[in-house]
């Protein structure tokens, strides 16, 4: 099993100001250098807009370009890129730059987008965002391989264009991001992309069923340019490895609960959610929800504990059919704690 490092962001509401976000980027660079040195497979950076959670991640291509200059071997992946917010040709151009800077270390996980506020950048793309994402994913795959695409130019005429610069790699490793919907797992298999999911929000049995349906759909699908014979299942998990279970839970409890409170409030404010945007949650409701979520992470799906506890959790995920765990490390712990946890996590790779 591969182990990667996932950034997602946990910032207090007043994180900006003089030096605030600059310090966060310093932390990201330090963690990236350590992950590269310790032999982790990839660095995943998200795309987030206009929210407290993930304030420093508006553009994974831009940040990955910086990471390419301070790392040597670790892969640099968007996890995730909200494709309906972007012209696919621009995505191809931006990531081709990163691919050249990194000498072929890029990968993209494509997301449909979920929060209505993100689509301030492209309001016309919100209603059919799922269809746009899957359509443009296939186009992105083709133009990366050098196939011209036809578009309307400034005069209204149709022209064929090929994005430049040409990428370093002949094919683009692609993932599809899922928030848990079984239909997205199956769609990823039909498109023959890898899949980026999460352990949270579902039982072990539910996750096993989704992985099986993905494998079946992938095996039955026709070949795609650059698609591997077998898709990679990558699962995100909140991660902090400490010397003991007690230490891990004590140190992670405050930061992770604060992160979860912010995330729950953000989800409730999504006008595109199933209820059209919930009313503001009370303090008691926020506390109850975050306490429940934290206990659930400790029970299953998280990597918060001693090396032995986390080794057992990783073995369990491998048995389910997981190929890679994207370890979500920046949920509020300090830089030194994150780096110490990565050192312990790196020692667990033996035998996985």
Keywords, please?
44% helix; globular; two-stranded antiparallel sheet; alpha/beta; 352 residues; 10 helices; TIM Barrel; 16% strand; single chain
In brief, what are we looking at here?
By secondary structure, the protein is α/β, with parallel strands linked by helices. Helices cover 44% and strands 16% of the residues.
Describe this structure in words.
By secondary structure, the chain is α/β, with parallel strands linked by helices. It has a single domain (2-347), classed as TIM Barrel (Alpha-Beta Barrel). Helix content is 44%, strand content 16%. It has ten helices and eleven strands. The strands form two sheets. It has an eight-stranded parallel β-barrel, surrounded by eight helices. Strands 5-6 form a two-stranded antiparallel sheet.
Quickly give the structural class.
Answer: alpha/beta
What is the highest CATH level, the class? Alpha Beta
The CATH architecture name reads Alpha-Beta Barrel
- Quickly count the helices: 10
Strand order of the largest sheet: 1-2-3-4-7-8-9-11
The gyration radius over C-alpha positions equals 20 Å
Helix fraction by DSSP (H/I, runs of at least 4)? 40-55%
CATH topology: TIM Barrel
Mean pLDDT reading: 91
Shape: globular
Number of strands: 11
**Regions with little confidence, pLDDT below 50 for 5+ residues:** none
Note the gap between the termini.
Answer: 6 Å
Query: What is the CATH superfamily?
Result: Luciferase-like domain
Helix and strand pattern: EHEHEHEHEEEHEHEHHEHEH
The biggest sheet, with number of strands, parallel, antiparallel or mixed sense and barrel status, is: 8 strands, parallel, barrel
Number of domains: 1
């Amino acid at each position: 099993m591969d182990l990667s490092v996932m950034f997602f962001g946990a910032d207090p509401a007043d994180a900006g100001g003089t030096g605030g976000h600059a310090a966060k980027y310093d932390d990201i660079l330090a963690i990236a250098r350590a992950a590269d040195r310790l032999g982790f497979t990839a660095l995943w950076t998200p795309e987030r807009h206009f929210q407290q959670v993930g304030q420093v991640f508006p553009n994974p291509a831009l940040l990955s370009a910086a990471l390419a200059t301070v790392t040597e071997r670790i892969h640099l992946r968007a996890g995730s890129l909200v494709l309906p917010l972007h012209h696919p040709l621009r995505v191809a151009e931006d990531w081709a730059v990163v691919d050249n800077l990194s000498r072929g270390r890029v990968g993209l996980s494509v997301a449909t987008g979920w929060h209505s506020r993100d689509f301030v950048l492209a309001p016309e793309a919100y209603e059919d965002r799922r269809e746009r994402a899957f359509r443009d994913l296939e186009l992105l795959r083709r133009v990366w391989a050098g196939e011209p695409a036809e578009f309307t130019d400034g005069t209204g005429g149709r022209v064929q264009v090929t994005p430049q610069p040409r990428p370093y790699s002949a094919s683009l490793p692609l993932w599809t991001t899922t928030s848990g919907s079984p239909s997205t797992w199956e769609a990823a298999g039909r498109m023959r992309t890898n899949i980026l999911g999460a352990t949270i929000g579902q039982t072990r049995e539910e996750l096993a069923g989704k992985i099986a349906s993905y494998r079946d759909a992938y095996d039955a699908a026709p070949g795609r340019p650059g698609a591997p014979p077998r898709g990679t299942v990558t699962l995100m998990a909140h991660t902090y490895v400490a010397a003991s279970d007690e230490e891990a839970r004590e140190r992670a409890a405050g930061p992770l609960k604060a992160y979860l409170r912010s995330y729950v409030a953000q989800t409730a404010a999504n006008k595109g959610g199933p209820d059209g945007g919930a009313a503001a949650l009370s303090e008691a409701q926020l506390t109850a929800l975050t306490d429940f979520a934290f206990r659930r992470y400790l029970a299953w799906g998280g990597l918060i504990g001693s090396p032995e506890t986390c080794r057992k959790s990783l073995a369990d995920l491998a048995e389910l059919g997981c190929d890679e765990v994207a370890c979500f490390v920046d949920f509020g712990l300090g830089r030194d704690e994150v780096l110490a946890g990565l050192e312990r996590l790196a020692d667990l790779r033996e035998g996985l």
